[in-house]
Fold these 3 entries.
Entry 1:
Amino acid sequence: MTPVDDGRCFVCGSENGAGLQLHFEPEGNGVVTARTTLRDEFQGWRGIAHGGIAIALLDEAMAHAAGAAGYRALTASISARFRKPVPLAAPLSIEGRLLWKRRNVLGLRARICSDDGAVLVEGEGSFLSA
C-alpha cells in the first residue's frame, strides 16, 4: 500500500475542518517541528488534552520526520511516556526526529513540550517505509 496525502489527515490535513491542521517545518537531518494550541474539543479531563490526541501528535511528528528524511512511512508501533498533563488553550511545541533506518524499518522519536520547554509527553515508534 502506498500512502497518499489527500489533505484529510486529522492532524495535518488542510482539508479537514474538524482536525488540528498542524504544519510541520523541516529543521534538517530528519527533524521537524510544529506549534499549536489545542482547543477545548480535544479535552479528556477538564483543561487537559485527551491522551489519544497527544499520541496522535507524536505519531504525526514521527511520520513527518520520516518524510523530511525522504521516506513515506506507516506506523508499525508507538510507545509513549506521559510526564505531565498536556494543557488545553496553551502554546505547545511538537518535535519529531528520525533516529535510524534498517532495511525498510525506521526508528523515530517525538515529544510535546510546553511553551517553557518542559517535556510533557515523549514517545518512540517504528515505522515501515512504503
Note: The first strand starts at residue 25 and ends at 28.
Entry 2:
Amino acid sequence: MKQRKKNWETPTDFIVNNVFPYFNKSYEYFDPCPLNSDFNGLEVEWGKQNFINPPYNQKDKEAFVKRAIEESKKGNICVCLLPVSTSTKLFHEHILPENPEIRFIKGRIKFKGINSKGELVSDKCGMHDSMLVIFGGKK
C-alpha cells in the first residue's frame, strides 16, 4: 500500500471566495497549519484572524479545533476548513456547543499537493466533503 502524503495546499481561490469574507479588509491572517511548515502551529502565538486547515488525522484535527475554540474566546476569529464529520465526538461535544457558524461546501475542493506517485497535482478532489466552521467574529 502506498503512503499518502498529508501536505495538501488549500487553493487560493477557495480562500479568497470563502474565507476572506470573515476577515477584516486587511485580508491578513495567520495560518497555523501552512504547507510544509517548519513549526508546530499548536505551540506558537496565533493572530487576530486565523485560517486553519489542519491535517485530517483525528489527533491533529481535534487539537487544532480545540485551539481555535480557545483563540475565539480571546476575541480572535478562527475559520476552520474541516472534513464533514457530523457524527463524531469532536463535532457534538466540542464544535456544536460553541454555536459556530457552519458552512457546508458544495462539491469537493481540489487541493494542490504531491500524490503517491510523487507528482505535483492540483486537479484532484479531496476524499472528503468539506465544511467551514467559524469560531468568533460576527454571525
Note: The mean pLDDT is 86.
Entry 3:
Amino acid sequence: MSQKLDLRGLACPGPVVRVKKALEETESGSVLAVVDNPESRENVQRFAKSKGYGVSVEEKGETFEMTVTKGGEQAAQAGPAAAQAASAGELVLFVTTPLVGDESPELGAILARAFYKTLLDVEDRPDRIIFMHAGVRLSIEGSPVLGSLKDLHCQGVDIMSCGTCLDFFGLTEKLAVGVVSNMFEITEALLGAGRVVRI
C-alpha cells in the first residue's frame, strides 16, 4: 500500500515528522513524499536511511518526489546494522557555544582551538558532533577550528549543524563542514545516544 504526502511549504522538521508518522501506521509499504527544497529532501533521506528504509528520489521541476519504503530486502539488510549501532550507543558532543567556558572570550577561543585539535589525538573521540545555537559558528567558513572539524569529519565523525540556528544568524550559505540538520533529527540523536557531552 502506498500513500502520497504533499509536504511542499512545510518547515522542518515537519516533513520528517509526517513521513515518520505515515510509516509508523503501516507494517510494510511505501510513502510518496513531495517536498520543494533540498534541505527537506536531505532530511527525509537521512531519516529513512537511519531507520533502514529504502528511499529513492526523483526531481520534477522545482519539487522532489521521494519514495520511502518500509520493509523489503533493502530494509532487511540495513535494519540490523541500524539496530546494532543504536544498541551500542553513540558518544555525542553537543555544542551550543563557539567558546570553551564563559568567563573570558579570549581564553574561551584559545581553549576551543586546543580542544577540537586534541579530539584528533584521543582514542575515545565522539561519533557525532551537534552544533546548535551560537555553536554553529564553528562549522562555517572562517571558523578557527574548521581545519580540525574537517579532519574529524574525514575520519568518520558525523557533524550536524542546526538549520534554524544557521538561518537565524544568516549563516546557512557559509556552512563548510557536515550537514544542515533539524530539531527532529537532533532530538533523536541526543535521546538515542549512549553518552552526551555538552560544551
Note: The mean pLDDT is 87.
